[in-house]
Amino acid sequence: MSYEIIWDEKSSESLNKLENFVARRILKKIKELKDNPFSKDIKRLRGENSFRLRIGDYRIIFEIETDKILILKIGHRKNIYQK
Fold this sequence. Notes:
The chain is α+β, with helices and mostly antiparallel strands. 30% of the residues lie in helices and 34% in strands. The protein has helices at 9-17, 20-35; strands at residues 4-7, 42-44, 51-55, 58-64, 68-76.
């Protein structure tokens, strides 16, 4: 089953601000996420319905709905979890 990727406006802006090689790595992982959103690098965030995907020092915060993946945040690990 393939999931549809839906980008939050803030997450797409965050991706555009990153260096090109980092943004390409993140996009590649998000494309892989479409086919298997429950791979080994995925963990559920404690106390939330969100998940995180680890890509080096960067994290993607997302939610999974029936057939959609909502990309909520993209950022460096040191400040991605701040509200």
